[in-house]
Amino acid sequence: xxxxxxxxxxxxxxxxxxxxxxxxxxxxxxxxxxxxxxxxxxxxxxxxxxxxxxxxxxxxxxxxxxxxxxxxxxxxxxxxxxxxxxxxxxxxxxxxxxxxxxxxxxxxxxxxxxxxxxxxxxxxxxxxxxxxxxxxxxxxxxxxxxxxxxxxxxxxxxxxxxxxxxxxxxxxxxxxxxxxxxxxxxxxxxxxxxxxxxxxxxx
Length: 203
Hints:
The chain has nine helices and no strands. By secondary structure, it is mostly helical. Helix 1 (2-19) packs across helix 2, helix 4 packs parallel to helix 7 and helix 5 runs antiparallel to helix 9.
């Protein structure tokens, strides 16, 4: 069954730019791969939503595999994050129209939960790959910050027609620089508050 699902997904990714990302394409893909449209429901009971989830899981696994092959720990933290985001976009690049359709569907009200869940999984995996094992409040602040950077980057990439999406690469670097500057400022402000001595009081 997994082989059939894989082939159905491949067919859909190849045709999404022309036929859209929908249940009609799913049925056609099942027919082309197995000779019977019923396999669309057998493989993906909830239709196109299940295909999108299956594709997202494959991209997640592919990203982690590629990141494990890179020497992230030898890089500065900003370079690790840049590499993580860029690696995900490299996986997405051949399937831009499919990604565009998936994002459009998940931005609908009934797709909010899946959007948040998928985004949370991705940024957590990026941070773990980058060597972050925080368990305190930093766990949440780091992931919230990266989620904002990654989401903004993804929307920018969808509109980027430059060669090898170079404009998006520059956009990622700018956003990371903004975050690093903010973190530096935040650290400085907190440090000043910590250095303030409490006023002398009589008992």
